[in-house]
Automatic annotation (TrEMBL):
Listed Pfam families: Cupin_2 (PF07883)
TM segment ranges: none
Name of this chain's protein: Cupin 2 conserved barrel domain protein
Gene3D superfamilies xref list: Jelly Rolls
Stretches assigned to the Cupin type-2 domain: 54-122
Amino acid sequence: MSTPSKNPFLEDVLKDHATLFQPGQGEILQMGGSKITLKVTSAISNDQLGVYEIELAPGRIGARLHYHRFMDETFIVTEGVLTVQHGDTEVEAPAGSVIYLPRLTPHAFANRSSARAVTTLIFNPAQKREGFFYGLQQILAADPINPEDYLTLYNKYDSYPVDTAKMLPV
């Protein structure tokens, strides 16, 4: 008499895959008056979630009015005041604010204050968003900025400017 084999699909296999990022940890990309710290990347989350810390110097534009077709975006303001436009509405979001922007919602963000603004930016799914940030760092370092390269990068990473004549964050 044989004993039935155990079906591995009926059990959960528990394993600790946690990743902790202490304050200041993560890969840091400098872009003029902005700093992006990569936290939970596509590689860590199996492309399900991207978590990034964005620091904008006073007067800096994060992104002009654009939208995403295949990902949602969430801002969690952790320091200062972030100006966020969604559709025709513009809000001043102080520290502690959470702004959820589902796909196909036109949005823009900037720091119009006299102090730095810091936000945790979440993309779901991640759509390999780090590639966008690496490309953006190179494009914004060019003088002058090449609008065609900028638009190509935008479109490759599921970003679509509402007005291509006013898409550059300068």
